[in-house]
Amino acid sequence: MRRTGLLPGGVRRFPRHGVSRTCRNVVAEVLTISEQLKPITIVDVKGPTSIHIEVRIAEDTGAVVLAGQDLGEAPQEHFGKSDYEYFLSVPAVEKDRLLLELLAEKLRGNTSARTALADWLSQRGIRFELASF
Hints:
The chain is α+β, with helices and mostly antiparallel strands.
């Protein structure tokens, strides 16, 4: 009896025999993509009030999630407890619009936008295609 199961992200695990190399490559690429979607820390401040904020993609819904936690004096003063957590979610159906708005904000007015974006993507190891004619 062959064993099959699910890999991270709900990708079906196939037995090696009888599965084309292309299928295995697609599964490997899906796993690589899911590894790249680990949370990204955008704030990590230690002090009397420590603040940690990260962005991530929710695996179950595909939403963009900004999650934060404040620890220490400020939440104690404002809420009467030393721990405060918060979440902001952008639904998956709004991700493309979010991406376009963020790119527009970052690049608006930059006459070298193509070069700036290509450099930014390269620095982060994000694949892209560049065409000109």
